[in-house]
Amino acid sequence: MAHGQMAEKAAPIIEDGEAQVVEAFSDPSKWIRHDLWVETTFDSDGDGKLDRMHVDVTRPEQTESEGLKLPVIYESSPYYAGTAGLDKGVFWDVKHELGEPGKPRKHPEVTRLGERPIISNSQIMTWVPRGYIVVHSSSPGTGLSDGAPTVGGDNESLAPKAVIDWLNGRAKGFTERDGDKEVKAYWSTGKVGMTGTSYNGTIPLAAATTGADGLEAIIPIAPNTSYYHYYRSNGLVRSPGGYLGEDIDVLYDFIHSGDESKRARNNEVVRDTEMKNGQDRITGDYNDFWAGRDYLNDMEPMKAALLMSHGFNDWNVMPEHSYRIYKKAKEMGLPTQIYYHQNGHGGPPPISMMNRWFTRYLFDVENGVENDPKAWIVRENDNKDNPTPYSDYPNPDAQDITLYLQKGGLQFGGLSSKKSKNKGKETLVDDHNVSGADLANAESSQNRLLYVTAPLTEDVHISGVPKIKIKLASSKPAANLSVWVVSLPWSEALNSKITDNIITRGWADPQNHSSLTESKPLVPGKFYEMEFELMPDDQIIPKGQQIGLMIFSSDKEFTLWPNPGTELTVDLDGTELMLPIVGGSIDFVEHD
Prior knowledge:
- There is one protein chain.
- By secondary structure, the protein is α+β, with helices and mostly antiparallel strands.
- Helices cover 16% and strands 27% of the residues.
- The strands form five sheets. It has a twelve-stranded mixed β-sheet, with helices on both faces. Strands 17, 18, 19, 20, 22, 23, 24, 25, 27, 28 and 29 form an eleven-stranded mixed β-sheet that branches. A two-stranded antiparallel ribbon has the order 1-2.
- Helix 9 links the parallel strand 13 and strand 14 (336-341).
- 50% of the residues are buried.
């Protein structure tokens, strides 16, 4: 350096519309890491004081030494301080008749983990070297944050809003949980982007529904956007995949890692009163409790740009969660994109997609991302970092094709695009002991009805939300109804892909045939009509396969387990499957 020449200050570098890794920001030993408590606008633990959220900050040292101001990537979670175990008895026992209460379950306690000042190390290696500050916070009633967990209640939206307000100088931060020495975010530009996976992906959406100024962009990954849709399906009590017997009160216990002295009161008020009275495992109906935990109902104030990410084979937080929010955000005129892969739970978009999104809305760089294709879908044999662009999702070239049932479902009935009359009625017998996979793979079974097309003569591209219209009668006043759309022959190969067998699924309570908010006991033997959506999909079914519609009652992995023996009778003339097909036709040799 020449005598008298000033050292050049470090600054973010944008190339090709993306924030680049900057050497001056890339040495973790020079990062400044500290924590604080942000005051909220609510008192959810009832101690007469406004709750404070525990927040940590990781920022390049130039934000101190050179007065550099940078935008923020923010992730919030109820999981950072540890969770309760999944010991036997903490889930609800699903082995009982429909309409009856389950046995009481155990309530585990969380042993809180974590040391100050670092709440989490997530996101920092990706974003700090690219010129962002990374912030984390523990959600209400978890870790060192005050409050009570509500699993989707208003405080879980207002808590991240308070942190965003603090980053913009509108809320107070303090050095101690009970102290009065203030901390200012003088290093923040005020522009905030949020991301995270699962519950951590729900919180960005929760924050965005408050309309918080400064929250410019969110990238929710496999977010739970409605706790009703997570724990119920069309009036039916249904568990998330892999967690049979879980419900919203179980999740409450799982995350309740906050102040031990406040837990008894929180349990009494939230879990044992509000949740006990609202979650209704008897009818499964949609009610005010669930409506208050459905973020689709709260989207009017939202203005953040939305990049949504999900897996089409996520049977935990199912792909409808992302699609319903993406669809509404698009209708509202917000900047939107959606990235879908073919795998299970989790899975962020490629880093380049995320980087372009945050660069556009947090650095305010005109990189044209809003003109990019709206939908990016990883095709079946492609790498998750190599999605195929489409103008939108569902594919605009998809049209609903209706398929009709032909008798023989205890073995293999027909599934045809030709409608014919007087096909009669067929009956299955419920038995939760037999898995859906075994039912789909069976040459014949009294426990399911299976209707299949002839082998496909061309690949078939399904894109959108399949629907079923069904006319059925039950031998009892209550019954589970489960529907799978499958690709046959069923593959049991060790190297079979997640996309090989199940195309999509859905579940419903026939007692809710006319209303989601009010179920009525079925009159045994009386036929009822109902129509409901299956999970959204975008999948190419290869030539030579057969598409099958499987109708059964109890789904061993997802529903309650009533005693076997309930009979469901399906009226074939009153039942049809609607599949959204790109190109508007399915090519197969029709059954006679």
